[in-house]
Amino acid sequence: MDSRKNTSSKAETTSKPVLKQKSRSVDSGRGKTRIGKAAKGKSGAQADIDKHYQEILDWFARNNPFAKSELHYKNAYELLVAVILSAQCTDKRVNMVTPALLARFPDPLSMSRSDQEEIYSYIKSISYPNNKAAHLLGMAKMLQSDFGGQVPDTVEDLMRLPGVGRKTANVIASVIFDKPAMAVDTHVFRVSARLGLTHDAKTPLEAEKQLVSHIPENILGKAHHWLILHGRYVCTARKPHCEECGLSELCPYFQANWDGDASLSADAKETASSRPLESPEKEPARMNESVSRKEPVSLKKSVSPRKLASAKGKSASSKGNSKK
User: Fold this and answer.
1) Among 68, 77, 115, 188, which has the highest number of CB atoms less than 10 A from its own CB?
2) Is 294 a catalytic residue?
3) Which structural domain, as residue segments, surrounds residue 94?
C-alpha cells in the first residue's frame, strides 16, 4: 500500500503520530508544549535555554494553535509545485497561478510530457518564470523516471529533484510525510535569531541544527509555521512591529534595540533586513514574502502599558542625562 497521502491545506490534520525526542515531551493540550525535565548533568545555561524555548513555544501554541501553510494544495505533488514556485514570490501570487497550472498538469506524468515554453505560459506572472519552468519540467521528468511518478518521502531524495533545496525538501517531508524536519527560510532564520532561539548561526543549516536540537520532534513542523508567519506579519525584516508583539518581553532583540518611542534604534533598523543567502540556482533566499501586512489577530498582542511606560521613562531619562 502506498503510504503517501492526499492532503488538503484547508483541513487541519489531527491524527499525526507523536514522535518524541529523548528527555522531551509535548503536551498536546491547549497551548502547552513541554521540553521536559532537565537531563542529568545539564548545565544551568542549558537549562536557561530550555526554559526560553519553553516559554516561546507555549506562547505560540496558545496564540496560533492551528498554524499551517498559506499555500493551496491537495497532495504532495501540488505542494511540491507550489513551494518551488514560491521562491522569491508571495504565497498569494502562487495561489493565483497554481489552479490553472495544475488543471493543465494534474500529475507529474502530464507535466513531464509538456515543454518549458508551455509551463512558462502558465507561470509567467511570478518571479523567475524561465528558471522555474525549467525546474518544474525537470522535476516532473525525474519523478517519472526515478520515483515511479510519486513524490519521494526523504529529504535526501527530494533534494535530488531540480529546483528543490533543503528548505523545500524539509517542507514536503514535514507537511506531507509527518517527518521531524525544520524548514528554515529567511523568515525562520531572522525570527529565530531575534528571539534568541539560535545563536551565531551563519547559515540556514546551522540555524536548522540548533532549532532541531531544542524543539520537540512532534511540533517541529508546526514550529516552522509559527516562526514563518510571525516573520511575515509581525517580526518583519524592515520596521518589525515590536510594539505589537506578544513576545517582546522574551525577545533579546527587542530588549537591546527598544528606544522608548515605539520604534527600533537606528542601528537596529540598519541591520534588520539581514538574511542568509542561498544559491539562486536552487532556491532564492527571499521565499514566501507576503504582500499583505494583514495578519491573524492571535499573532499580535500589544506590549503591556507598564512595559511601554518603563521603556519610555528610561529613554527620557537617558536623553536628559545626555543633554547635561
Assistant:
1) 188
2) no
3) 76-175
Residue range 83-115, pLDDT digits in tens: 999 999 999 999 999 999 999 999 999 999 999
User: Cα dist. 312→141, 263, 268, 301 in Å?
Assistant: 60, 11, 17, 19
Is residue 251 marked as binding?
yes
Asked if 107 is an active-site residue, the reply is no
Whether residue 64 is contained in a domain is answered as no
Residue type, 110: S
Q: From the candidates 91, 132, 141, 167, give the one annotated as an active-site residue.
A: 167
Residues 201 and 317 in one domain: yes
89 is in an annotated binding site: no
* Closest listed residue to residue 194, CA positions, set 52, 35, 43: 52
Distance CA 169, CA 179 (A): 11
Asked if 208 and 154 sit in the same domain, the reply is no
Cα separations in angstroms, 33 against 27, 56, 199, 317: 5, 9, 22, 40
Domain C-terminal end among 147, 175, 203: 175
113 and 191: one domain?
no
The answer to whether residue 289 scores a pLDDT higher than 50 is: no
Q: Are residues 152 and 83 in the same domain?
A: yes
For the chain, the domain total comes to 2
Name the grid cell of 135: 525546474
What pLDDT is recorded for position 47? 87
